């Protein structure tokens, strides 16, 4: 007797394990959020410390991390919308490939100008 596959038995597919890069990106995003939240919290009790933290956030490394976080948030938000359309609308399977391209295009179209705004003071623009 031939053994049936998971699809024949209507079992959900096993989730893919996240890549190390995804874990690193999540850690960097969480670290950024924690530092930013701590900076906002210092505003309540020490304005000089808050100003010092703002100065530290003005260097190229921190701004580059903010660009990466911005790009990842944009991509994952748009990709989540794509997955909703693909999974829950009747025509979702037909538009999956174009929606995937649209996700990448919109990430670049929105993310590059956002990164330019973030990096503008470092690139020689005025504050």
What's the N-to-C terminus distance? 73 Å
Number of strands: 0
User: What number is the mean pLDDT?
Assistant: 81
Low-confidence stretches: none
Gross morphology is elongated
Biggest sheet features = none
Q: Give the strand content.
A: under 5%
- What is the helix fraction of residues, given as a range? 55-70%
Count of helical stretches: 4
Rg to the nearest angstrom? 21 Å
Structural class designation: mainly alpha
Q: List the secondary-structure elements in sequence, H or E.
A: HHHH
List keywords for this structure.
127 residues, 68% helix, mainly alpha
Explain how this protein is built.
With 127 residues, the chain is mainly α. It contains four helices and no strands. The chain is elongated. 2% of the residues are buried.
Task: Give a summary of the structure in a few sentences.
The protein contains 4 helices and no strands. With 127 residues, it is mainly α. Helix 1 (20-42) runs antiparallel to helix 2 (47-56), helix 1 (20-42) crosses helix 3 and helix 3 runs antiparallel to helix 4 (96-119).
